[in-house]
Amino acid sequence: MKRPILIIASVVVAFVLVGALLMNLVRFGSSYRSVVYEPGFGGGGAPEYDIPQEAPSASDAFAPLPASEEVKNTVIAQAQERLVIQNADLAIVVADPKTRMKEIADMATAMGGFVVSSNLYTTYYGPNSNEAPEASMTIRVPSERLDEALDKIKEGAVEVNYENRTGEDVTSIYVDLQSQLKAKQAAEKKLLEILDAAEETEDVLAVYTELQRIQSEIEVLKGQIKYYEESSSTSAISIRLIAEETVQPVEIGGWRLQGTANEAIQDLIYFTQGFIQFLIRFVLYTLPALILVAIPLYLAFLGGRALVRRFGRSKASAEVKQQEKKK
Prior knowledge:
Elements: H1 2-35, H2 69-78, E1 84-94, H3 97-110, E2 114-125, E3 130-142, H4 146-154, E4 159-169, H5 171-197, H6 201-233, E5 234-243, E6 251-252, E7 255-256, H7 258-326
Parallel strand pairs: 1-5
Antiparallel strand pairs: 1-4, 2-3, 3-5, 6-7
Helix pairs in contact: 1-7, 2-5, 5-6
């Protein structure tokens, strides 16, 4: 009886060790893949932007050759300054949002910028749903005066709730677009020469169709270049103006509830985030891993049980034979 038990225990231990080894290999493989950088992703590459892209050509008969290294080097030499798109957004607490919104608009105009959008609305606060004005606006100012504009916006503010600033270097994208534009303009010039020399109607139509395509691509490239030039020359500032009375802490019997309520809400958010992360990891990793380990263990259990029953039947038959011999 001891021998079958030892066999079953050995099989179970072997499967447990194999399952643990497989889980470690899977975990090591996922960790290794997480630090391997694929070509074209991550690192110090140029940022991506949602800008119109060129439509692929249906005819490649007159497709221009890629821009030569000489053209690219010429454009890079001409780009003496890097193009960086700088934006900022902040929220400030002020005594009078309406008045402050007008002051910021006047400041932007005086700096050579302009107001992109502005919105003045009413917000409600407190247990009695008191009304208070609140505003949001977006302005654009020259990029070289961004720091000055931010300082003036924060002047006289009761409090700065948050302030974020971003910068995106688009020099490489801009240089590439310039080189593409030069190459397509050269192709356009060549097609115009061919068109002037063409005599057959079919040749004229083919060259004219290709010329139209090239000119359309040139306009797209000019639009993209203009977008980057304007985005880098002026900076967008998004501002939220909060009325001072809406941020005053609520007091009941001398007890301020704001701090306790904020902490409770923050703790609830942290708990919800942690619980959701636990569920995702349990469903996508822990549960499948347990199933993979449980399957061979269950098969081992079935095999062991079969062995125990077989040895049990053999032992019982042997005892029966011994008893018959004694008789």
